[in-house]
Amino acid sequence: MTIEANLNQLRDQIALACRRANRSETEVALMAVSKVHPVEALLEAYAAGQRLFGENRVQEFQEKSASLGGQSDLEMHLIGPLQSNKTAKAAELFAAVDTVDSLKIAQRLDAAAKALGKKLPVLIEVKLSHEESKHGIAPEELTRLLAAMQGLEHVVPHGLMTVPPWSEDAEVARPYFQRLRELRDEAQRTCSTVVELSMGMSNDFAVAIEEGSTCVRVGTALFGKRLYPAP
Ligand SMILES: *Cc1c(COP(=O)(O)O)cnc(C)c1O
């Protein structure tokens, strides 16, 4: 299967999941997760019409972006953990940072975005599973973080993001998606810009769409298996 064929199949599957959930296809964005794959794969998806992408590491995208140029409408988000010493680079390279998980990171991104003269949309990553390897803030801390972020003028919280525990069985992820949606609904009452729900990956995006996802992040089903695990 080519990347273009995979993309078409994914769009069909997303449309089907939307119909099942009684939602409009226009409510659900498909993010192509190009981490670990070469820039050629990214460009192939771009040529097939894909515009929204996600990369996990600042350094990796910095290297890839040297091979990009003419794709001014390509929208790249950071979807991997961000260390505070990389915030300035991240604010410069990415259209959005979807993994904000502390006030410190938000403040540093705000300062960097201010220096660049731009507003940076961000998502708050929420850790709903107890796995050591997962990132994000605890759900109990969300209200306080969003309140503190109201004082920041250059980062705008657009929504929430989560990565549930991986399972063969997509149903295992459903309660995590439901929980993120509840948190989003609560947060929206005091912070009206919090609307997006970035949830769902290759094996569980249909369930995520049923539970209200507005952005599914798909790597494997689009680009094939990664040759080594992403950090
Ligand atoms: C790698 C990754 C994805 C894509 O995962 P697949 O299972 O390959 O679709 C989505 N979101 C995040 C945060 C990732 O790190």
From TrEMBL:
Q: Which residue windows are coiled coil? A: none
Keyword RNA-binding part of the UniProt annotation: no
Signal peptide residues on this chain, from the entry's feature table: none
Keyword match Transmembrane helix: no
Keyword list, A-Z: Pyridoxal phosphate
Q: GO molecular function: any one? A: pyridoxal phosphate binding
Cofactor names from the entry are:
pyridoxal 5'-phosphate
Q: Where is the Alanine racemase N-terminal domain?
A: 6-225
* UniProt-listed Gene3D superfamilies: Alanine racemase
Tell me which InterPro entries the record gives: Ala_racemase_N, PLP-binding_barrel, PyrdxlP_homeostasis
Point out residues bearing the modification N6-(pyridoxal phosphate)lysine: K35
Function as written in the Swiss-Prot or TrEMBL entry: Pyridoxal 5'-phosphate (PLP)-binding protein, which is involved in PLP homeostasis.
> What PANTHER family does the entry give?
PROLINE SYNTHETASE CO-TRANSCRIBED BACTERIAL HOMOLOG PROTEIN, PYRIDOXAL PHOSPHATE HOMEOSTASIS PROTEIN
The similarity comment for this entry is: Belongs to the pyridoxal phosphate-binding protein YggS/PROSC family.
Name of this chain's protein: Pyridoxal phosphate homeostasis protein
